[in-house]
Specification:
Helix 6 packs across helix 7. By secondary structure, the protein is α/β, with parallel strands linked by helices. It binds NADP nicotinamide-adenine-dinucleotide phosphate (NAP). This is Glucose-6-phosphate 1-dehydrogenase.
Length: about 550
């Protein structure tokens, strides 16, 4: 049976007084000023006036930005549409841009969509949602401006238990200012205050530790929700279900049966004018150190004691801490160059005006990683991530070993590697899980071919897959931390990648140039070949 997107929990949780340890934040939780004068405004929003009820206020800091428009407001609307938000909620946009509530609503309305076209009452729902959206203009480093926000939030809260969620959708250099001001001037006085922090969480071990240290001056670890939106993707969530609830997978999940695991991310476009941010990070920090490594940890972890956040995160940290330091020779970097195809010229990375002409920043990287524990000893985990490649997608490929003494080797031909099983978990787009098997071609002869047992989500499930941000926002509201990154996980992830990143930069390693729209640098093939691996995504068999 299809798992339903479960929102009953959300609605129920909203009416429970959320007294938990993240209420003891270091901000001004003790300053709860009078709210009686504010009650008149409540009728307009249709809120119940029972002061024992709770209310959730979501403040998007950096609401005028790209991420807020593209992802956060639409995700909140989708949650509202599905009935997943608590009964009492308010959404505030906060940024420096001068806007009125009406301006914000107008801006937000342009990016809201009803999941399935022409769904019932969509416009009505949008109007109701937009009525709950407000805007407050302020500086990110002004306690005074945040205190003014606090005042407005209290008007909506009307003396109820106030739970406040801040979403930092701003550049990382202003995280600390915003956290300081929100914490000191606009924390909840009687409920929880949580902060969702977007990547990047630093650019190496030192800067990440400094960021964590600064955040913890104002917040406890329980209040910090470090978001990695890949963890909110349906098929990444499904990894554990697949493995721990199906007898046929878990016993095979070891070095004994698995030859290699591939984690592949590709985009078919370049930086397209947004290279300024990217150039300071590069593809390893942008995709590998976080998204792909998180997937790897989930994939490779031991069975957790339970599905509780801490039990899962404990197992993930163990994987990260068991990983062998990455050697420079196990990393290949590339950068896309201009390419003309069909009369169209595609730009080089350094043609982007926001990128320095002599930039060595990798837009592609491939790496071989190893987990030195009993389960995975010797199994290469190959990662590959790149921009401006021939296709776009994210997938996990598990290549199994040969069948020992295979009776059918004669029928398979000389390339035995092509006859091994491969499990592919296509995270995006067009979600699917398929297993490549050998099969007899029907007929009187004995000819084998490669076939797929295919779970194609679009064909199997009629429910639309929620966006990762929806799941993660809902989890943050409910205090579910399973899909957020704990500080020790982050430290372990940076410890793994920082030395090789430093080496690449100090030695000014020149990336291998690959044409825009190609399959990436040839070096990635040599790297894989060194470990007897063939990239599964580049095969010419039945994948496409
Ligand atoms: N866009 C994405 O798809 C995406 C994906 C993953 C992660 N992220 C991360 O999410 C965060 C927000 O992304 P975004 O694309 O929405 O960023 P953005 O549009 O560049 O910035 C968001 C808002 O922050 C304010 N801002 C921008 N630069 C500033 C500066 N130098 N000083 C002070 N305020 C500044 C602006 O608002 P005002 O001028 O109105 O104050 C802007 O509207 C970033 O940390 C980014 O790395 C983004």
């Amino acid at each position: 049976m299809a798992m339903e997107y479960e929102c009953i929990v959300g609605a129920a949780a909203a009416s429970v007084a959320p007294v938990e340890n993240d209420t003891d934040n270091k901000g001004l939780n003790d300053k709860l000023s009078s709210v009686t004068s504010l009650k008149e405004s409540l009728g307009e929003f249709g809120f119940a006036k029972d002061e024992n009820e709770s209310i959730v206020s979501v403040t998007i800091v950096g609401a005028s930005g790209d991420l807020a428009k593209k992802k956060i407001f639409p995700a909140l609307f989708a949650l509202y549409y599905e009935g997943c938000l608590p009964k009492n909620f308010t959404i505030y946009g906060y940024a420096r841009s001068k806007m009125t509530d009406a301006d914000l609503r107008n801006m937000v309305s342009k990016t809201l969509t009803c999941r399935i076209d022409k769904r019932e009452n969509c416009n009505e729902k949008m109007d109701e949602f937009l009525k709950r959206c407000f805007y407050h203009s302020g500086q990110y480093d002004s306690q005074e401006n945040f205190a003014a926000l606090d005042k407005k939030l209290k008007e909506h809260e009307g003396g109820r238990i106030s739970n406040r969620l801040y979403y930092l959708s701003i550049p990382p250099n202003i995280f600390i200012d915003a956290v300081k001001c929100a914490s000191l001037s606009a924390s909840s006085g009687n409920g929880w205050t949580r902060v969702i922090v977007e990547k990047p969480f630093g650019r190496d071990s030192e800067s990440s530790a400094a960021l964590t240290k600064s955040l913890k001056q104002y917040l406890t670890e329980d209040q910090i929700f470090r978001i990695d939106h890949y963890l909110g993707k349906e098929l990444v969530e499904n990894l554990s279900v697949l493995r721990f609830s199906n007898l046929i997978f878990e016993p095979l999940w070891t070095r004994q049966y698995i030859r290699n695991v591939q984690l592949i991310f590709s985009e078919d476009f370049g930086t397209e004018g947004r290279g300024g941010y990217f150039d300071n990070y590069g593809i390893i920090r942008d995709i590998m150190q976080n998204h792909l490594l998180q997937i790897l940890a989930l994939f490779a972890m031991e069975t957790p004691v339970s599905l509780d956040a801490e039990d899962i995160r404990n197992e993930k940290v163990k994987v990260l801490r068991s990983m062998r330091p990455i050697r420079l020779e196990d990393v290949v970097i590339g950068q896309y160059k201009s390419h003309t195809r069909g009369g169209v010229t595609y730009p080089a990375y350094t043609d982007d005006k926001t990128v320095p002409n002599d930039s060595l920043t990798p837009t592609f990287a491939a790496a071989a990683l190893f987990i030195d524990n009993a389960r995975w000893d010797g199994v290469p985990f190959l990662m590959k991530a790149g921009k401006a490649l021939h296709n776009k997608g994210a997938e996990i490929r598990v290549q199994f070993r040969h069948v020992p003494g295979n009776l059918y080797n004669r029928n398979i031909g000389t390339d035995l590697d092509r006859a091994t099983n491969e499990l592919v978990i296509r995270v995006q787009p067009d979600e699917a899980i398929y297993l490549k098997i050998n099969n007899k071609v029907p007929g009187l002869g004995m000819r084998l071919d490669r076939s797929k047992l295919n779970l194609h989500y679009a064909a199997r499930y009629s429910t639309e897959i929620p966006d990762a941000y929806e799941r993660l926002l809902l989890d943050a509201i409910e205090g579910e931390r399973r899909l957020f990154i704990r500080s020790d996980e982050l430290d372990a992830a940076w410890s793994l990648f920082t030395p090789v990143l430093k080496e690449l930069e100090e030695k000014k390693i020149i990336p291998e140039y690959y044409p825009y729209g190609s399959r990436g640098p040839v070096g990635a093939h040599y790297l894989a070949a060194r470990y007897n691996v063939r990239w599964g995504d580049l095969g010419v068999d039945i994948d496409q």
